Amino acid sequence: VRTLTLGLIPADGIGREVIPAAQQVLNALPSSYQLAFQFKHCEAGFEHFQQHGTALPQQTIDVLRQECDGALFGAVSSPSHKVAGYSSPIVALRKHLDLYANVRPVISTTTGAGEAAMGEKAVDMLIIRENTECLYIKKERQFTDSDGQVKAIAERLITQGASERAGRMAFRMALARQAVREKQPVDQRRWTGPPKVTIVHKSNVLSITDGLWRESIRHVYENTPEFRDQIALEEQLVDSMVYRMFREPEVFDVVVAPNLYGDILSDGAAALVGSLGLVPSANVGDNFVMGEPVHGSAPDIAGQHKANPIAAIRSAALLLENIGLSQPASAIYQAVDTTLRKGFRTPDLGGTATTEEVTEAVCKHLQ
Ligand code: NAD
Ligand code: MN
């Protein structure tokens, strides 16, 4: 039996409901997978900031770094106005642990009959969001100009190195997805062409920053025969990317985008498959993986047993998958699909099931 030590950081709002749900599902994995879990409960979040003056205690960083094989993060309630001394713990954690790519699979769930149960189209795309730079370096300033105008400026950082490693991750994952597809019957494959990577940018306007992003990824592609020979590469300007993604999401395989575009595109893509409450992510670095649902803390439904736990449960599976444990991961994905097909759905999917009922159904279908 292999024991995995996982940090759990529920943070705020529904993070405190969906992370325990994911934990419950991990604990319900049948013993045949030879996995045991030790969980380390870690503090972070806006509420923690209000009570203790810090959103990300050093102890949380130390425990994750020194004691954990991976982690699961819930969501944080970052306010929309500036609060002195506060900054988002998730953005900081991604930096501290050098989790440079956020991997977001967006997949529609089909019913037994083959039609899409949630959302209209057969979507099976993987969005790779660069996770360390772009506008998220938060170098903003405000000042009053000599003409009396109040101005605000944000710096946007793009580096060749970060762009190249995000691109390399996208190409590697495109090949990995292809390897998985090859084991599936042809009629069950949603993507039947060669592996494809779409670079998202806005180089027609931001020719220096997005230009560097685009050229760095193209450089990796052109100089790596393994990628060049097996993967089709295309580009899409971010605005028309949104248009195409809503009209024909089935044409996308792997999509790689700078931090902010990737954030926005993946929330949008979640609408295509039925709910933000379904879409998982993993923050991936070379030495650590942290699963995290794409959604936020959903204060509008927190504490009401309405939160859909599936995004967090799938994030736990994605975490396992990214540390090389693909069998227990696919068992969880399948248990989730069965649960949805059998009609256990929270209100965001038009159902009446509670967070707890959906979680218990997933655990039951794992057995
Ligand atoms: P949100 O994702 O929290 O909610 C958007 C909508 O989706 C809401 O109507 C919500 O009820 C619904 N929703 C989200 N997750 C759901 C789930 N699991 N089940 C059912 N319904 C779900 O986004 P928001 O409202 O824009 O932001 C709320 C707070 O979350 C803000 O403070 C924001 O800063 C924070 N946030 C945090 C993260 C993160 O921690 N990574 C990401 C996004 C937003
Ligand atoms: Mn987001």
Keywords:
single chain, 367 residues, alpha/beta, Isopropylmalate Dehydrogenase, ten-stranded mixed β-sheet, two-stranded antiparallel ribbon, 12 helices, binds nicotinamide-adenine-dinucleotide, binds manganese (II) ion, IsoPropMal-DH-like_dom, Isopropylmalate dehydrogenase-like domain-containing protein, IsoCit/isopropylmalate_DH_CS, NAD binding, metal-binding
Describe the 3D structure.
The radius of gyration is 20 Å and the shape is globular. The strands form 2 sheets. Strands 2-1-3-12-11-4-5-10-8-9 form a 10-stranded mixed sheet, with helices on both faces. Strands 6-7 form a two-stranded antiparallel ribbon. Helix 1 (15-27) crosses helix 10, helix 1 packs parallel to helix 12 and helix 5 crosses helix 6 (209-222). It is α/β, with parallel strands linked by helices and 367 residues long. 40% of the residues lie in helices and 19% in strands. The chain folds into 2 domains: 1-105 and 275-367, Isopropylmalate Dehydrogenase (3-Layer(aba) Sandwich); 120-129 and 157-272, Isopropylmalate Dehydrogenase. It has helices at 15-27, 46-52, 58-67, 89-96, 160-182, 209-222, 225-230, 238-247, 259-272, 310-322, 326-341, 355-366, and strands spanning 2-11, 35-41, 70-75, 101-107, 124-130, 140-144, 150-154, 196-201, 232-237, 254-257, 282-284, 289-291. The protein is built from 12 helices and 12 strands. The two termini are 18 Å apart. The mean pLDDT is 94. Manganese (II) ion (MN) is lined by residues 263, 267.
